[in-house]
């Protein structure tokens, strides 16, 4: 009984539904699911009738297709499989199927000795293995590499036929970097598999560069009326000749890659070369080295990283730097792992002393990205711009929000108070060109959007269109300050000095003088990637740096108080809404 592609889509959709034991499926539910599947895969928008789905269920129950599906109806309404482990994809091959496959294997076996059929060996073994297992009901004796959860395989046949028939298609595609899918005409030329992942090569339109698209990122394929653009002077073998993997940069020259493997690994690389250009050469000391002539790409990096400490890149220098950087960042993730167990103890210290230093909130890679973003902003701002301070830094550089509010930092804030929101953000850099001394003080000013005279709010100021005011003490006590350190900070580059326990109230000038003259201060050494958590009423100061190195800090203030009388925070940012 011939079965067309639409029927197969319906059978597989019904099968997927009935295998889902967490939902009860009525006939109407199955009709809707089949209609959606046909629209997604074939662009058919007229839906499916109840009678069609009922006939499909009868066929699946019968032995006409070899399914004999144990479909039952519960409560005269809900369809399901009586056997929860059943699926039509697990159906055994019929005797007729086995006979046809056996004939095919015998035909293929005749070609195995010919040079132009070198790839048939693995194919024949796969088929023989499957047939023997089905005939004898025994476990297979060969286990081929496979990925049962691989996505996109359903598109192979459609693209294969589009290539053979020279037909353009409309692709709905969303790369991992794209926020949403895009639809475009596509002229497919070749299908390629690499490490169990499938790709299609082609162009959007004539004259544009060749695209290499992953099938698992294709959402839908539909026919289109655009005339097919044939490939001009394109050869698949030449295209991939100088790369490992599928990432090709047209026009990029190849480079000599020199690798040193340890004695245990070298024989494996010799018997399974990394690339057809691989040669074994001798170093100046007579050690065997592996030489490749390839383009540098992502797959080459991944291949080398897979060997861990069993390989060393000797050249080119930029590949060596790249591998070293990746391994350093990887090691950083393990050595300086954020410890949630110690977080509670540190926050208890913050409650009692008004200050605590949290280590390894940011990894080195994240700190480098933040510093580079700030550098590019200041560089673009040009001469005349203050390079040692950026007020309202998150408004000036919105990209920093995603970099700063990482899961680690949000975890810290949630532990302190899940109702906190951002109220102030400043960047400053104590450098050789901007080296200042800060006397002992408490931070007692908040920024608001406009001046509204309100009881308890005093000392109004205005700077850069932002109003500053001293609020009631309760609001200051609710404030939490996080100082994100982008450089290692100690007393040589102006680290903060604090008086622990001085954060419980707003102090007078005489009280500040008495405490600072009679208390031994504590220096807050904070490594890059660490965060100093403090209360703004904590007495603090900082000295001038004695060494010519930077002390870059992003100063963030948080609060959970709604201001009275129509006053609003100048820089309010909801952390959880935007996380």
TrEMBL record:
Entry-linked PROSITE patterns: WYL
Domain spans labelled WYL: 154-221
N-terminal signal peptide: none
An annotated Gene Ontology molecular function: 2-oxoglutarate-dependent dioxygenase activity
Pfam families, alphabetized: PhyH, WCX, WYL
Domain WCX, residue spans: 254-331
Coiled-coil stretches noted in the UniProt entry, renumbered to this chain: none
Domain of life: Bacteria
UniProt-recorded name of the protein: WYL domain-containing protein
Protein source organism: Dawidia cretensis
């Amino acid at each position: 009984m011939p079965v067309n592609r639409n029927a197969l889509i319906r059978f597989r959709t019904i099968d997927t539904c009935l295998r889902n034991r967490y939902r009860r499926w009525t006939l109407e539910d199955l009709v809707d699911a089949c209609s959606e599947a046909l629209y997604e895969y074939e662009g058919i928008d007229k839906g499916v009738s109840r009678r069609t789905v009922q006939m499909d269920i009868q066929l699946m129950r019968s032995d006409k297709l070899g399914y004999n599906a144990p479909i039952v109806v519960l409560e005269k309404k809900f369809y399901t499989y009586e056997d929860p482990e059943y699926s039509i994809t697990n159906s055994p091959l019929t005797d007729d199927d086995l006979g046809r496959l056996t004939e095919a294997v015998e035909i293929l076996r005749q070609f195995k000795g010919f040079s132009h059929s070198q790839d048939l060996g693995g194919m024949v073994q796969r088929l023989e293995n499957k047939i023997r297992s089905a005939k004898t009901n025994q476990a297979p004796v060969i286990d081929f590499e496979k990925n049962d959860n691989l996505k996109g395989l359903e598109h192979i046949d459609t693209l294969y036929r589009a290539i053979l028939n020279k037909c353009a298609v409309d692709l709905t595609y969303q790369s991992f970097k794209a926020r949403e899918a895009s639809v475009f005409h596509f002229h497919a030329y070749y299908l390629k598999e690499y490490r169990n992942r499938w790709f299609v090569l082609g162009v959007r339109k004539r004259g544009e560069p060749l695209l290499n698209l992953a099938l698992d990122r294709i959402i839908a394929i539909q026919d289109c009326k655009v005339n097919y653009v044939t490939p001009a002077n394109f050869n698949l073998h030449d295209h991939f000749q100088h790369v490992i993997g599928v990432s090709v940069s047209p026009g990029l020259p190849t480079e000599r890659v020199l690798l040193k493997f340890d004695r245990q690994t070298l024989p494996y690389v010799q018997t399974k070369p990394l690339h057809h250009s691989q040669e074994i050469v001798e170093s100046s000391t007579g050690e065997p080295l592996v030489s490749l002539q390839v383009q540098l790409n992502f797959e080459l990096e991944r291949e080398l990283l897979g060997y861990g400490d069993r390989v060393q890149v000797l050249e080119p220098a930029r590949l060596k730097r790249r591998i070293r950087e990746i391994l350093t960042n990887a090691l950083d993730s393990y050595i300086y792992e954020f410890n949630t167990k110690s977080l509670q103890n540190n926050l208890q210290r913050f409650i009692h002393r008004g200050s605590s230093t949290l280590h390894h909130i940011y990894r080195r890679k994240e700190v480098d990205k933040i510093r580079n973003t700030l550098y590019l902003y200041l560089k673009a701002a040009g001469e005349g711009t203050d390079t040692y301070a950026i007020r309202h830094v998150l408004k000036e550089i919105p990209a920093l929000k995603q970099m700063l509010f990482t899961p680690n930092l949000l975890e810290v804030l949630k532990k302190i108070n899940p109702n906190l929101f951002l109220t102030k953000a400043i960047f400053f850099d104590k450098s050789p060109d901007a080296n200042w001394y800060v006397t002992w003080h408490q931070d007692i000013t908040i920024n608001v959007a406009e001046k509204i005279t309100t009881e308890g709010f005093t000392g109004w100021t205005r700077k850069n269109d932002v109003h500053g005011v001293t609020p009631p003490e309760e609001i200051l006590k609710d404030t939490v300050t996080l100082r994100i350190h982008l450089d290692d900070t100690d007393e040589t580059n102006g680290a903060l000095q604090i008086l622990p326990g001085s954060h419980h109230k707003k102090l007078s000038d005489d009280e500040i003088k008495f405490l600072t003259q009679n208390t031994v201060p504590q220096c807050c050494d904070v490594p890059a990637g660490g965060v100093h958590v403090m209360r703004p009423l904590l007495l603090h100061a900082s000295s001038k740096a004695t060494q010519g190195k930077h002390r870059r800090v992003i100063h963030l203030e948080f609060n959970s108080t709604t201001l009275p009388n129509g006053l609003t925070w100048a820089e309010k940012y909801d952390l959880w809404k935007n996380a």
